[in-house]
Amino acid sequence: MTGTSPIRIMLVDDHAVVRHGIAFFLQSFEDMEVVAQASSGEEAVSLCHSVLPDIVLMDLLMPGMGGVEATGIIRERFPAIQVVAMTSYDDEALVRAILQAGAIGYLLKDATSQELGDTIRAAHAGKPSLSPGATQILIASATQPPPHNYHLTEREIEVLSLLVEGLNNPQIAQRLVISRSTVKYHVSSILSKLGVASRTEAVAMAVQNNLVNVDTDSR
């Protein structure tokens, strides 16, 4: 390769075999060069000071400082360094956490050498790149309707829980040590907030939407 400097890459993984395997893959690309390897997040952050790679291929789950924390620190201290997460897990929490930390790419360790090369080149050009699984996770998460907040008060949730247990108003009043008229008021408010016409409908909605913890032993 002439006229252009190779993309400088640091590999971060607590398993030496994985690092060596990825380094072997990258040897086939003339436009890339592995300049450093780290076995932990702490070591990765330290090496960035001296090596200043273009791209960091970051494992996520490591002893000590994990990949998410290390990515956040690297992106804050060295904004010119791009981080690509490389992990065995397509997990929504991990995908969201590493992207929020500043990673520009998310790749699974079973990716082909061509996918690895394409992801690194995209990251070097400042273009985000996600594995198909990570993309599907984010799409599914974005299209799910948000949980409905019925704005029930703490006392209303207590009353609703007792309705689910099958208690009537006098029994609820006795259990909560409040007057029957107060129970009646809370029940009316619950029906209004849930948009239902009866106690039976309120109970069904509470169970279907996990609005209360159902204690089957007490029923």
Task: Describe what you observe in this structure.
The protein has 219 residues and is of the alpha/beta class. The protein folds into 2 domains: 7-143, Response regulator (Rossmann fold, 3-Layer(aba) Sandwich), CATH 3.40.50; 154-218, Arc Repressor Mutant, subunit A (Orthogonal Bundle), CATH 1.10.10.10. The protein has 10 helices and 6 strands; from the N terminus they run βαβαβαβαβαβααααα. The protein has helices at 16-26, 41-51, 67-77, 92-101, 113-124, 132-143, 154-165, 169-176, 180-194, 199-208; strands at residues 7-12, 32-38, 55-58, 82-87, 105-108, 129-130. It has a 6-stranded parallel sheet with strand order 2-1-3-4-5-6, with helices on both faces. It is elongated and about 80 Å long. The mean pLDDT is 87.
What secondary-structure arrangement, pairings included, does this model have?
Blueprint: E1 7-12, H1 16-26, E2 32-38, H2 41-51, E3 55-58, H3 67-77, E4 82-87, H4 92-101, E5 105-108, H5 113-124, E6 129-130, H6 132-143, H7 154-165, H8 169-176, H9 180-194, H10 199-208
Parallel strand pairs: 1-2, 1-3, 3-4, 4-5, 5-6
Helix pairs in contact: 2-3, 3-4, 7-9, 7-10, 8-9
